[in-house]
Phosphoribosyl-AMP cyclohydrolase
Amino acid sequence: MLPTPSPQNPPAVLDPELAAALKRDDAGLVAAVVQQFDTNQVLMLGWMDDEALHRTLTSGRVTFWSRSRQEYWRKGDTSGHVQWVKSVALDCDGDALLIRVDQVGAACHTGTRTCFDGRELPAVVGAA
Amino acid sequence: MLPTPSPQNPPAVLDPELAAALKRDDAGLVAAVVQQFDTNQVLMLGWMDDEALHRTLTSGRVTFWSRSRQEYWRKGDTSGHVQWVKSVALDCDGDALLIRVDQVGAACHTGTRTCFDGRELPAVVGAA
């Protein structure tokens, strides 16, 4: 019997060259920045193991690994707030993905369009 | 003598309410998405512990914790490719920051404007 896939025990589904390029954290995850493709708005950040990335690359829908629930989570299955994949890129050192999507409705579970809306911190503004 | 600050041993510098809102990974870090403020282009993703966030919020310049070098890294000190802080937001569940900046030159150490340029993965495009 095959072992159950998990971030610590990913199935061999990704292209081996891509799998070798991923720089995973201790939990087997890379960060996934999700961006609205036509406005460039940053919607949210999620986490992906090899299996979540495989599903995202092959299905047209974004799937994350939920660190809090410890399970796969295909965005929109419960809320209807689907993320349709437009493109996926891996950064220079392999620990971050940029997923460009068409977001249906609110990206945030709190109901705001993005997970950063209205959550600004006091910061000193820099200038040259 | 005070202990040397590190991700595992942050100094008590952040506002306690903010420090309590951070959901750090096992290494004491949160993800920091860096975005060009006027084009919304996603430039790179870095990592911050409490001290790096404190420096970023108070100095007008972006400082990361380098996971590979295990040291603080103020963007641009070596390359000249400074990131001037425009705004900082923390997401709904406290594990990701959105840092809007004015980026001088290339954000990527490879010389490309962003760390995602020219690094697209083959992906199935989704549609409603």
Notes: The longest helix of chain B spans residues 50-59. Chain B touches chain A through 55 residues (CB under 8 Å).
